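tool_call: predict_structure(chain=1)
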Amino acid sequence: MIELSPAQRRAFRAQAHHLNPVVSIAGNGLTPAVLKEIDHALQAHELIKIRVYGDDRALRESILTTVCAELGAAAVQHIGKTLIVWREKREQEASKAPGLDKPKKSIAKAKSAKALSSHRGLASLKKKAGPKKDYWFSAPGKGPRRHSDDA
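tool_result:
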């Protein structure tokens, strides 16, 4: 179990204030599946809230202690039925980015009008700038905009 200084604990409490609980522990208690889910949530977010349903405060304290001991996390706060836990991301999982083991897809040719227009827009940015036009588009029923020199 990691020990936090009071300043670290205060900073983590402030960060966790707006978070919603990501894991709920109900009648079955702290099962291996719940521990695995807490481990995944800690790896993804580092700082999480856990909601424990039940009125026994001693049971909530024991759940917090068990989670911190088994997962190598730090207890930030236990307030009411909400537990706040922090653990730094693990290196072997943090370095492995999702989707790296999948083969890369080749870029297909544009098939939709939207994709075609965005492709043309990018191509037009690569071209050298030509002479500037007085207008972009003419309004329906009107000719091109004219700049008056007296205004």
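agent: Residues 6 and 63 are 22 Å apart (CA to CA). Proceeding to next step.
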